[in-house]
Design goal:
The protein contains eight helices and five strands, in the order H-H-E-H-H-H-E-H-E-H-E-E-H. The protein is of the alpha+beta class and about 220 residues long.
Length: about 220
């Protein structure tokens, strides 16, 4: 019997893991109030429960809630956006698209790059002291475990009524981040995750149907 899942839009917390999964959205708007450190510690604890190869737990999560550092990161991201003409042109063209979902997506991208200072906190998941069969610590094999931790983090945030999104655009300002956050050479940031009490609704999302992504027993 198929499970009934609450797919109503809203900003309320939930204890239902299915509801959290089905209503998780990228949130780019947050309430103007700080997130208590106890809640930030709770989502990091959830992240730390993720499985990892040989239980290596190759991660450290750097949480930034210092306003001066948040503003500096936001300024760096905004500066990258303003200097990257191809990205600006792509977003500008997309904002005129007849496809509503494309317009909203690109509007959200612009909002992220230009209004990141509104985020009450930012989490930087870092691969740390990774032993991998591949030479590049940021490669797929080396980094695979940490993204399960990131998923735990984002779903637990959703359960608490905290909005998040994940971007890898931090790579464009990584040298600055490394210096600002005093990251050691064997710590490799893999994402940038703003987090705060949701200022936009959670709710159902448009995704491919199971019939489009499922194959039984072979590809064909």
């Amino acid at each position: 019997m198929a499970r009934q899942i609450n797919l109503e839009t809203g900003r309320e917390p939930t204890d239902d893991v299915w509801e959290a999964i089905y209503t998780q959205r990228a949130i780019r708007y947050w309430e103007e109030k700080p997130v208590p450190r106890a809640l930030l510690e709770q989502v990091i604890e959830a992240a730390s429960k993720a499985p990892s190869g040989s239980n290596t737990q190759p991660w450290i999560f750097v949480v930034i809630d210092d306003r001066a550092k948040l503003d500096e990161i936001a300024a760096l991201m905004r500066g990258f956006f303003e200097a990257a003409e191809p990205i600006r042109n792509l977003i500008s063209a997309g904002e005129k698209s007849e496809d509503k979902s494309e317009r909203l997506m690109l509007k959200g991208a612009k909002q992220f790059f230009t209004k990141l200072e509104r985020a009450p906190a930012i989490i930087i998941p870092c691969l740390y002291q990774v032993a991998s069969p591949t030479p590049d610590p940021a490669s797929l094999l080396a980094g695979s475990s940490i993204y399960m931790a990131v998923q735990n983090l984002m779903l637990s945030a959703r359960a608490l009524g905290l909005g998040t999104l994940m971007t890898t655009a931090h790579a464009m300002i990584e040298p600055n981040l490394r210096e600002m956050l005093s990251l050691p050479d064997d710590a490799h940031p893999v994402a940038l995750i703003p987090i705060g009490f949701a200022g936009a609704n959670f709710g159902p999302t448009k995704r491919k149907g199971v019939d489009e992504v499922l194959r039984w027993n072979s590809w064909s």
